[in-house]
Amino acid sequence: ERFRLVYRFPGIRYCRALSRLKLLQTALTAAALPPVCYLHATGQVSAAALLYAGGGAALAGAMLCAMSYCFRRIIGFIYLSESGRSVKVAHLTFWGRRRDVVFPLQSVMTLDEVGDSRQEPLLQFRRHDSADVLYFTLKYGQIVDRERFAQIFGELE
């Protein structure tokens, strides 16, 4: 089935780049830990340096999880099928890759059902059949097709 673009968030490519850079930074930090442990075991590095390296690796891992949690919930693109029965949403995975998910239009809650104010920076994308919440922004995103957007989420005014 063919889909037509309804909404786009241009900043999703920056989120993707930041997500991948955070993965790289975490991997490099974790890769530096075994050599520091070895150097500490041979007496070439102090215990404080080992603690700093371990703390840095733990912080990098925690930040990766926190940032990934946020980035995975930001919607980059919303599409509506030409038949008007299906909605396709594109968002990021943990690894910074694009993931497309298709839902029936009836399962998507309108903005009135969700209860968000149109002026909020992040609006919730909710479904009747799932507790999962994704987010999109009207402030920084672009509605490409207002008529189809209204079909999905209801009128903006």
Question: How would you characterize the overall build of this protein?
Answer:
The protein is an alpha+beta fold. It folds into 2 domains: 3-10 and 74-153; 13-71. 43% of the residues lie in helices and 26% in strands. The chain has 4 helices and 7 strands. It has a 5-stranded antiparallel beta sheet with strand order 4-3-2-1-7, sandwiched between helices. Helix 1 (12-41) runs antiparallel to helix 2. The radius of gyration is 21 Å and the shape is elongated. The mean pLDDT is 94. It comes from Nothoprocta pentlandii. Keywords: Membrane, Mitochondrion, Mitochondrion inner membrane, Transmembrane, Transmembrane helix.
Tell me the number of structural domains. Answer: 2
**Low-pLDDT sequence parts:** none
Number of beta-strand segments:
7
Rounded to an integer in angstroms, the radius of gyration calculated over CA atoms is 21 Å
**Alpha carbon gap, first and last residue:** 31 Å
The sequence of SSEs as H and E is EHHEEEHEEEH
Content of β-strand: 25-35%
> Residue-averaged pLDDT, rounded?
94
Choose one word for the global shape: elongated
Number of helical elements: 4
Characterize the largest beta sheet: strand count, sense, and whether it forms a barrel. Answer: 5 strands, antiparallel
Alpha-beta classification: alpha+beta
Fraction of helical residues: 40-55%
The main sheet orders its strands as: 4-3-2-1-7
